[in-house]
């Protein structure tokens, strides 16, 4: 339930682009994890930290985001689109490509339109392998 509240707040913040609303979502994910540990809350917490980092230009938040997303991946043991985005933000194109293709194989990629418009992936948009990936979706 609390994870759902965090998700609703995260969706709202994308419309307002307000750092305090991201912080509120992060607090809800933390609260959710204190009640029921789960990979969704960790992954969403990491994604919110990534978005907050983009908004504030704070690279330390990206490091914290990576910890949360990696922890979620260890629990879930599936490829992570959010981790691929994090790799793209760090300009680690090799790992980004690997994670995106693993997501494709696992069926965990978001819709093509979402991927094409994801600001986290701006750094890879001109890569040939990225264009090929989009053709396969």
Give descriptors for this structure.
single chain; 137 residues; mainly alpha; Serine Threonine Protein Phosphatase 5, Tetratricopeptide repeat; 2 domains; globular
Could you explain the architecture of this structure?
The chain has 2 domains: 1-77, Alpha Horseshoe (Serine Threonine Protein Phosphatase 5, Tetratricopeptide repeat), CATH 1.25.40; 78-137, no CATH class. With 137 residues, the chain is mostly helical. The chain is built from 8 helices and no strands. 35% of the residues are buried. The mean pLDDT is 88. Helix 1 packs antiparallel against helix 2 (19-35) and helix 1 packs parallel to helix 3 (39-56). It is 77% helix and 0% strand.
Q: Categorize the overall geometry.
A: globular
Q: Write down the CATH class of the largest domain.
A: Mainly Alpha
CATH architecture of the largest domain: Alpha Horseshoe
Beta-strand content estimate: under 5%
Structural class: mainly alpha
Number of domains: 2
Gap between N and C termini = 32 Å
- Annotated CATH topology of the largest domain: Serine Threonine Protein Phosphatase 5, Tetratricopeptide repeat
Sheet having the most strands? none
The H-and-E topology, N to C, reads as HHHHHHHH
Radius of gyration: 14 Å
Helix content: over 70%
Q: How many strand elements?
A: 0
Which regions contain 5 or more consecutive residues with pLDDT less than 50? Answer: none
Provide a count of the helices: 8
Task: Provide the residue-averaged pLDDT.
Answer: 88
